[in-house]
Amino acid sequence: MLTKRLKADKEGIEQAAKILKKGGIVAIPTETVYGLAASAYDENAVKKVFSAKGRPQDNPLIVHIADIDSLNTIAKDIPDSAYKAAKRFWPGPFTMILKRTEKIPASVSAGLDTVAVRMPSDETAREIIKLSVPLAAPSANTSGKPSPTKAQYVIDDLDGKIDAVVISGVCEVGVESTVITLVTNPPRLLRPGAVTAEELREVFPDIVVDGAVLAEPKKGEKVFSPGMKYKHYAPKTETYLVEGNSEQFVQFVNSKENAAAVCFDDEEGKITLPKLCYGTAVDEATLAHSVFSVLRKADDLGVESIFVHAPSKSGVGLAVYNRLIRAAAFRVIKL
Ligand code: AMP
Ligand code: MG
Predict the structure, then answer these.
(1) Which band of pLDDT confidence, cut at 50, 70 and 90, is reported for residue 222?
(2) Is the whole-model pTM more than 0.90?
(3) Pocket lining for ligand 1, CB < 6 angstroms
(4) How many of the other CB atoms lie within 10 Å of CB of 44?
(5) Rounded to an integer, what distance in angstroms lies between the CA atom of residue 294 and that of residue 291?
(6) Helix axis angle, 317-327 relative to 284-298, nearest 10°?
(7) What is the dihedral of CA 188, 193, 194, 198, to 10 degrees?
(8) Whose C-alpha lies nearest to ligand 1, atom 19?
(9) What atom in ligand 1 is closest to the CA of residue 183?
């Protein structure tokens, strides 16, 4: 299949919408990461998304909408708190899990009776949805690889497997949306993102952070978010997440051989190994912005192991930590 390159202009947006309405699959920019979109109403199109990505059949997709009125077509028994959260966090990097309506095919939700819904803030994404239909869209990467924050990464993974890619800039946020479920009581944070746990508590004072956010789900344990049980975002090179202060980290990595470091910007000059910097520790949003692109580049360093300096777990740092611990297959070194 020839994958069309579309621009994020009026013509490109119209073309993308047309392909999607006809049952095709198109990678689109969003503020979090690029998404691989299909009509959320078209079972056959949704199946193509799973197969292009090689996504496990039991990992559900997020439905993207452009206006709040679409919400009750997709979800039912919507609690008042969902509208309150929508008012506060939409459009933006925030996904809610609610009860699914019959209008949404079961395959979107991997057979669950729930559905994940989000309204992106990216203008191009919203225009495409407005001109077509609500879009079921997971990240536009090959399953297991780091999520794509640039169109080029989508092309690297999916060229020839999808109908088109809408080429826009680098995704502003850089990590996928915050996911919460409102189907449980109390509500649960399943995946941290740029809408932080601290912000969520202002709307949901009793929200609990699911155990799978920071640890590997145990065998047989109930998994609320199927996506969290997979090894994810991983470079091919063996990766370790290292906790400690700057001095400890620098000393630790400098004692290693055939290794590389993923470090904070102000550590660059002190590290004698090959290294990639991913932002400043005090501004976790910079780390979120670069984390996936650094993980994609890590294999090019040609070393045996990669040591990543762990961010703090507060604010957006929790989202970055959550992605890195999976990239590292839960190998954490505490200095
Ligand atoms: P992605 O779009 O690739 O970031 O993946 C979507 C994430 O949302 C995965 O971690 C899914 O497990 C999660 N998700 C989507 N729908 C549901 C649902 N109905 N229940 C629980 N988790 C969901
Ligand atoms: Mg994904």
Answers:
(1) confident
(2) yes
(3) 59-60, 62, 97, 109, 112, 114-116, 138-139, 176, 179, 190-191, 225-228
(4) 11
(5) 5
(6) 20
(7) 30
(8) 115
(9) 20
Tokens of 197: 């746990």
Q: Which ligand is nearest to the CA of 176?
A: 1
The whole-angstrom distance between residue 34's C-alpha and the CA centroid of its chain comes to: 9
* CA 311 / ligand 2 centre spacing (Å): 21
| Strand pairing class (238-243; 305-309) | parallel
What spacing in Å lies between the alpha carbon of 178 and ligand 2's midpoint?
A: 12
- Interval between CA 244 and ligand 1 midpoint (Å): 31
Of 305, 145, 143, 323, nearest in space to 234 by CA = 145
Give the C-alpha separation, 185 to 206, whole Å.
9
Q: How far is the CA of 226 from the centre of ligand 1 (A)?
A: 7
Q: Using one digit for the tens of pLDDT, what is the confidence trace for 287-320?
A: 999 999 999 999 899 999 999 999 999 999 999 9
Predicted confidence at residue 232, as pLDDT, reads 74
Q: Provide the β-strand partners of residue 166.
A: 6
Token pair belonging to 113: 């009776």
Mean pLDDT of the chain: 96
What percentage of the chain has pLDDT greater than the value 90?
92
Rounded distance, CA 307 to CA 304, Å?
10
Residue 230 has pLDDT above 90, yes or no: no
**Higher per-residue confidence, 220 vs 194:** 194
Q: Indicate which ligand has the atom closest to the C-alpha of 98.
A: 1
> Is the pLDDT reported for residue 125 higher than 80?
yes
Instruction: Tell me the HSE value of 178 on the side-chain side, using a 13 A CA sphere.
Output: 25
